[in-house]
Amino acid sequence: MMHFESQYRSREVYELQNIKPALLDDIALVHSRSYIHGLEKAMPKAMDEGIIFIDGSGPTYATETTFEESLIAAGAGISLVDAVVEASMVNYNPPIGFALIRPPGHHAVPKGPMGFCVFGNIAVAARHAQRVHGLQRVLIIDFDVHHGNGTCDAFYDDPDIFFISTHQDGSYPGTGKMEQVGQGSGEGATLNLPLPGGSGDSSMRSVFDEVIVPCAQRFKPDIILVSAGYDAHALDPLAGLQFTTGTYYMLASNIKQLAKELCHGRCVFFLEGGYNLESLSNSVADTFRAFLGEPSLASQFDDPTMLYEEPLLRVQKAIQKVKHIHYL
Asked: What are the Histone deacetylase domain coordinates in residue numbering (predicted)?
């Protein structure tokens, strides 16, 4: 696999050093202080027991370093927002940020952790962009196979943060219905796009071009943040949307172009799900190739025999068959 570390590609890839952990006040812009302090107080128990269960609504665990590591993960997102915004002031085509962080964040709800997620990294970064940089209108695109319910909940009544999620219909945690569009002044600033199992590459391309792009153009964001989950890949064991490495290259290329057109190139990706290490690493690497304007290597990784016919293609074939019979 091609190396993307800064020592191999110093003129194209910049690695932020000495990331500062997020402050508790940063986390409190999204999460309740009672949750934050409760988690911090649980660390001695985790030290004694090795691992503790910290969530009653999903499989989330903690070790003695979880609190510290979660602050670092959120701090990495904040630092990348700072770096991208600073670069955009002197360069109309600034670098795109990618937070390669763990734990992930998009399931963490304001009052607690959920689904492997401790703090809402992308939600914390969105509030930071608004509060520190004056980037009032934030577009969040979440293409993880699971609905980003925590991010959705955090901004459900906020008209200035437009949350768009594509996810597999009926998958964990069971939220993200199309009728969930926000509430109060935030009504219309949430767009959930549940996709049927097997939807695949062509459906995602159609959704992006025909729904996400025009919505983003109308919203006119000041920055785009992306919950980049790679668990919709056909090889991932947790779901069945059967995206390919090429799907992620397409998304990265198109989101990069969208950010260039709408918000001076300001864009930061946040790593979310991904549970097959091979497909995860290949897809993240191809995402970087898209950022760098290099050709995709997806054809070397994606075996067409792993896919089955997508629902949209079956419908299109059925329509063509009906038309053929009609004309006969």
From this structure: 17-289
Distance, in Å, from the CA atom of 120 to the CA atom of 60, rounded to the nearest integer, reads 14
- Concerning whether 147 is annotated as a catalytic residue, the answer is no
Residue 9 forms part of a structural domain:
no
Tell me if 170 is assigned to some domain: yes
107 inside domain = yes
- CATH code, domain carrying 112: 3.40.800.20
Q: Is the peptide bond before 103 cis (omega within 30 degrees of 0)?
A: yes
Tell me the average pLDDT across 279-294.
96
Do residues 224 and 80 lie in contact, with contact meaning Cβ atoms separated by under 8 Å? no
User: How many structural domains are present in the chain?
Assistant: 1
pTM: 0.92
Interatomic CA distance for residues 163 and 138, integer angstroms: 8
Active-site residue (options: 106, 107, 128, 264): 107
What domain range includes position 106?
Answer: 24-327
